[in-house]
Amino acid sequence: MAIFLTKDSKVIVQGMTGATGMKHTKLMLADGTNIVGGVNPRKAGTSVDFDGTEVPVFGSVAEAMEKTGANVTVVFVPPAFAKAAVVEAIDAEIPLAVVITEGIAVHDSAAFWAYAGSKGNKTRIIGPNCPGLITPGQSNAGIIPGDITKPGRIGLVSKSGTLTYQMMYELRDIGFSSAVGIGGDPVIGTTHIDALAAFEADPETDLIVMIGEIGGDAEERAADFIKANVTKPVVGYVAGFTAPEGKTMGHAGAIVSGSSGTAQAKKEALEAAGVKVGKTPSETALLAREALSA
């Protein structure tokens, strides 16, 4: 089992013919992802050879879906054009859009998030500014390294890309059902809560690891959800205990004002919901091991 992405997922890449898209399409194919096409209106009708695998290029997401049955798109389109690319995916009603692009204007992210809602949320958006998601041994949609872990029983949801990779590496001997990087921008599609609900419903996920960071109240809301709805053990980590107040740190959403959004406030909210929270990523991995062996 897995959440959102399986070996049967048929993946297209918007922006596949750009340098970043080419690089990561090659890596995704190496991880076994079933990539059935790319999208670039200017190069429609051509194909790209990835070490012997010919991937056709289509003029639109709708055409790619019609010709291939694609049900996932990974977006590597530059920030200025990303909103149009995501809106195109939503109009085509593709079930999952993974928006990797960093630096999209918050106004644009808010616009396509609201547009997806106005269309009935037929397209799940992951991101933007995220590493994507991976179901080890099955499929990889994004930029998460595919060789740092194996299939297993842990579900991971994280705001941070690099901490996603570290946690996967630290628990590589146990392995993961799926790992989802949701991104740390102020406006994102899929949230901690969405992933927690999916992992709770997945019979092959035994433990959930949740990584948050300072800024906003997403972790506090996730804590309320865990308390009311999650029966599986959850282990957490919140990045940013040493961040100075009032300063934006790393992600655009990671800004603290007063006590709101601090790592300590988030840690306390999660612990009140029964989540064991580590002070470092390594301590969090140790707590996960202890919870699984309990």
Termini separation (Å)?
A: 23 Å
CATH fold node name of the largest domain: Rossmann fold
In terms of per-residue confidence, which ranges show pLDDT below 50 for 5 or more consecutive residues?
A: none
Q: What's the number of domains?
A: 2
Tell me about the biggest sheet? 7 strands, mixed
Taking Cα atoms only, what radius of gyration do you get, to the nearest Å?
19 Å
Q: Which strand order do you get reading across the main beta sheet?
A: 3-4-2-1-5-6-7
Helix content: 25-40%
CATH class of the largest domain: Alpha Beta
CATH homologous superfamily name of the largest domain?
A: Succinyl-CoA synthetase domains
Shape: globular
Note the total helix count: 9
- Please give the CATH architecture of the largest domain: 3-Layer(aba) Sandwich
How much of the residues is beta strand, in percent? 15-25%
Q: What is the β-strand count?
A: 14
Order of helices and strands: EHEEEHEHEHEEEEHEHEHEHEH
Average pLDDT works out at: 94
Label the structural class. Answer: alpha/beta
EC number: 6.2.1.5
Organism: Streptomyces blastmyceticus
Keywords: Ligase, Nucleotide-binding, Tricarboxylic acid cycle
Catalytic activity: succinate + ATP + CoA = succinyl-CoA + ADP + phosphate; GTP + succinate + CoA = succinyl-CoA + GDP + phosphate
Explain the overall architecture.
- It is a single chain.
- The chain is α/β, with parallel strands linked by helices and 294 residues long.
- The chain has two domains: 11-126, Rossmann fold; 148-293, Succinyl-CoA synthetase domains (Rossmann fold), CATH 3.40.50.261.
- 34% of the residues lie in helices and 23% in strands.
- It contains nine helices and 14 strands.
- The protein has helices at 19-30, 61-68, 79-91, 106-118, 161-170, 192-201, 218-229, 263-272, 281-293, and strands at 11-14, 35-39, 47-50, 53-58, 72-75, 96-99, 124-126, 132-135, 139-142, 151-158, 176-181, 207-213, 234-239, 276-278.
- The strands form two sheets. Strands 3-4-2-1-5-6-7 form a seven-stranded mixed beta sheet, sandwiched between helices.
- The protein is globular.
- InterPro entries: Cit_synth/succinyl-CoA_lig_AS (IPR017440), Citrt_syn/SCS-alpha_CS (IPR033847), CoA-bd (IPR003781), CoA_lig_alpha (IPR005810), NAD(P)-bd_dom_sf (IPR036291), SUCC_ACL_C (IPR005811), Succinyl-CoA_synth-like (IPR016102).
- GO terms for molecular function: ligase activity.
- CoA binds at residues 17-20, 43, 100-102.
- This is Succinate--CoA ligase [ADP-forming] subunit alpha.
- It catalyses: succinate + ATP + CoA = succinyl-CoA + ADP + phosphate; GTP + succinate + CoA = succinyl-CoA + GDP + phosphate.
